[in-house]
Design goal:
mainly beta, Jelly Rolls, 1 helix, 37% strand, globular, Polyketide synthase curC
């Protein structure tokens, strides 16, 4: 058996990101699920690019603020306590708009935990 407790604030943020990212699942030793804590100020985006995952299902649970998620069909507004789920092969870009009054804080969960699974999506290619 194995158990771990991770204090989010004790995990160092990932460098060179447009928003604060703490890989709390990696810190806890999670191998089958990716679990990340994000905090984005107004004008910051969550991922590094508009993207989709080839295998991974991704979910964003909003802890505070409002998350905006752009997709090819529409832009979703996800309030605090809300959940947004993107199936594999579903392009999305999560962000906090520049005119937002507050930061947005969320947990991002992806499964399976695969690396190199994200692919850039360019809406102009459609």
């Amino acid at each position: 058996m194995g158990y771990r407790v991770v204090e989010t604030d004790d995990v160092e943020p990932v460098a060179d990101r447009s928003s604060e990212l703490r890989r709390i699942g990696v810190e806890a030793g999670a191998e089958n699920v990716a679990l990340n804590h994000f905090r984005a100020a107004p004008g910051e985006q969550i991922p590094l690019m508009y993207h989709y995952h080839t295998e991974q299902e991704e979910a964003f649970y909003v802890l505070s603020g409002t998350l905006f998620v752009e997709t090819p069909e529409e832009t979703f507004e996800v309030p605090s306590g809300g959940l947004f789920v993107a199936d594999p092969e579903s392009p999305h870009r999560a962000y906090n708009p520049s005119d937002a009054a507050d930061p947005v804080e969320l947990l991002a969960v992806g499964a399976p935990a695969v690396t190199g699974d994200a692919a850039r999506y360019d809406p102009d290619d459609e």
